[in-house]
Amino acid sequence: MPNSSKTPLRPLTTSDSSIRKLGVMGKVAIEGRVKTRLGNTIGFDKSAQIHQRFLDHLFKVFQDWGDERHWVVSPIESISPTTPKPTSDWQIIDQGGGNLGDRMRRWFANHACNRPALPRSHAILIGADCPLLSPAAMDHADRLFRDCDLVLGPASDGGYYLIGLSVSNNLPNENNPPNRATPPSRTILDALWNDIPWSTDEVFERTVAAAESIGLRIGRLPMRSDVDTEEDLTALLHQIEHPADNTEVSSDHIELARDIRRILSQPMI
């Protein structure tokens, strides 16, 4: 299995023919319906504000990354004229119904697979619970597609914070040689998103096993932590405000931490 620490990374070049697509999967910030585990301890109004702040941060830092950017949203009918939205560089895409796997599968089916007019799609989907993801991390994921079909970012809770697919819709070329047979799109979609025990600590390993069973080449990113609880939020603030040696902290991260502190200081309702 290719590993991000062992796979040689080649620089991205303008000659690459892939279409890079990024989806940020995040709910509308409705009080009591987002980040409920966090809301149980800090208040649902504050957890909704923090969720929105995470979305705003991700929309800003990735506003120039890739060829297409999608806010993959639920419930789309809750978007109103007053709902904070990303810039016009982002498309708003409905997650649709079903479980988490159904909704992820739908985005990849519609925006990566079965698109014969496109050469090769590099489609990456992330959640809104890992706000320290950067364009550099996304470039790392994209480079792994040079040698991999699937890229996963393992989360410390046993899930994953990023999943990406490289799908060719053209005749064989240097990145899709004729002796490299990849499974049909339907087979890939079924394997990766059917029969996975969502919201458990088995999600990552079960996904890896499913991908290996159909012969996909897998690249892994470094492990990261989602922000689901107050303890996770405290760890995020510490990571920004007390970075390890030689760790760069951007002005966007400092502003994010400052806004989180401001939200947390509000009186409980």
From TrEMBL:
Gene3D superfamilies: Spore Coat Polysaccharide Biosynthesis Protein SpsA, Chain A (3.90.550.10). InterPro entries: Nucleotide-diphossugar_trans (IPR029044), Trfase_1_rSAM/seldom-assoc (IPR018641). Pfam families: DUF2064 (PF09837). SUPFAM superfamilies: Nucleotide-diphospho-sugar transferases. Signal peptide: none annotated. It comes from the Bacteria. PANTHER family: GLYCOSYLTRANSFERASE, SLL1095 PROTEIN. This is Glycosyltransferase. It comes from Rhodopirellula europaea SH398.
